[in-house]
Amino acid sequence: MNVTGKLKHIYDTATWESGFSKREFVVTTNEQYPQDLKMEFVKDKCALLDNYSEGDEVTVDINLRGNEYNGKYYVNIQAWRIGSNSTDGNKVIAQAAKDKAVSVDDVGEDDLPF
After folding, report:
1. pTM (2 decimals)?
2. What is the CATH number of domain 2-100?
3. pLDDT by residue for the chain (114 residues), tens digit each?
């Protein structure tokens, strides 16, 4: 699944003594009736948000996660990839925090001899 919209808010990374970390953010969807959806990156994916600012148009790949605790049920939207929506319609996908994102236009013909 994915969600397209505008980054409304990016929170700081929260880390616990166990070493677990998560970073929450809010995306306002591009629909007739826009929704503010709070999502989260966990562990090493938290740094993916470092290259983004509030107001950026993005597409976020997500998984829905649900669990039960003491008879109550909870649902989280866990993100695993984020990409910018450029003005010409190409998406730049951030695969990892230290990888440089590459636009479709930046990829040329290969120079292999075969």
Report:
1. 0.72
2. 2.40.50.140
3. 999 999 999 999 999 999 999 999 999 999 999 999 999 999 999 999 999 999 999 999 999 999 999 999 999 999 999 999 865 444 444 444 334 444 444 445 555 555
**Angstrom distance (rounded) from CA 12 to CA 24:** 7
Task: Please give the single-letter amino acid code of residue 17.
Answer: E
Instruction: Mention every residue, 6+ apart, whose C-beta is less than 8 A from residue 2.
Output: 59, 60, 61, 62
* Amino acid letter, residue 62: I
Q: Give residue limits of the domains in the chain.
A: 2-100
Each residue of 48-57: b (16+ CB within 10 Å) or e? Answer: bbeebeeebb
